Amino acid sequence: MYAALITGKETVELVEFPDPTPPDAGVVVDIAFCGICGTDIHAYQSGTPYRPSICGHEWSGTVSATGKAVRSLTEGDRVVVAASPACGRCSACEAGLADRCEAAFLSAIGSDPLAPPHGGFAPRIAVAESRVVKTDSGLTDEQAAQVEPATVAFHAVRQSYLRLGDTAVIQGAGPIGLGTMQWVRAAGAGRVIVIEPNAERRALALALGATDVVEPGDEASTLIKESTHGLGADIVYECVGRAWAIQTAVDLARRGGSICLIGVPDTDATISPAVWLVKEIRMTAALAYFHEEFDMAMRMMADGRVLVEPLHTSTASLAGLGDAIADLAGGATQQAKVLVNPNWA
């Protein structure tokens, strides 16, 4: 069996692995689709060491084998990748901080004891039973492959200081930004402004319910000031994942406003602390998700409150993964979410 791995700067290789077998407390999943994440793109661009277990971490599939200790899943169950629930035994759990469980966090970043030697860019994968949840029956396999990034955005909005009726700004209309925009609307924002340089993505944001879309720069600043009587946004969600965008988010927020960091920059950021202090900015940061949030997000996806089908713009094979990532990394792509079907020849 071959799995695709990002092994260096602008390098994707097909690496041969033995067919996986389930550990006692694990399952083998036949992958249906796996999405290309911004984290994959950053690794491809930078060439920094990239953990193989998360090279392809947005997947859906069907359980094809179970370990002897598995009780909650059977062969034929449709599942999506998730984070483990709180263990109840680590230092964080024993301190009453189950939402900061060390074992759950390690599973979310692919460092748990049963982490596989490759990610979801493969026909099959063996993972811990706790790392998957059953797919909502109302979702297709293509939709299910977008549950993981949708839950990233869901978690971020739940962590943030958003209040009913707020003017919210979303920086970046990639898959995470478009998901965040929809969750923000579902959570009761009064006005949602999306800042995005790509015209196709701006059009998609409008189609998915943004109040306004605008290119970054002076035009965005003017629009936000005019729509808030000169105050600035109540909350800004940073979904670009570039260091410069963090200070920009603060610049667009009102005094007493807040920002939420979701995009992950791969370099340090330069900020203006005096601006943060004068504005008394509140900040939340969101990485990954909690186990229970997957079912919550899937229910809202299945009933149509959040749409992921329009984000899926193309599908690639394993052999075409390198070209697909190169296109997404080039900065001029027309794609939103690209899924990989590892079963295509």
Can you describe this structure?
- The protein is built from twelve helices and 15 strands.
- With 345 residues, it is an alpha/beta fold.
- It has two domains: 2-81 and 113-150 and 290-340, Medium-chain alcohol dehydrogenases, catalytic domain (Quinone Oxidoreductase, Chain A, domain 1, Alpha-Beta Complex); 161-285, NAD(P)-binding Rossmann-like Domain (Rossmann fold), CATH 3.40.50.
- The strands form three sheets. Strands 3, 4, 5, 6, 7, 14 and 15 form a seven-stranded mixed beta sheet that branches. A six-stranded parallel beta sheet has the order 10-9-8-11-12-13, with helices on both faces. It has a two-stranded antiparallel ribbon with strand order 1-2.
- The longest helix has 13 residues, at 147-159.
- The model has no long low-confidence stretch (mean pLDDT 96).
- GO terms for molecular function: oxidoreductase activity; zinc ion binding.
- Its cofactor is Zn(2+).
- Pfam families: ADH_N, ADH_zinc_N.
- Its EC number is 1.1.1.-.
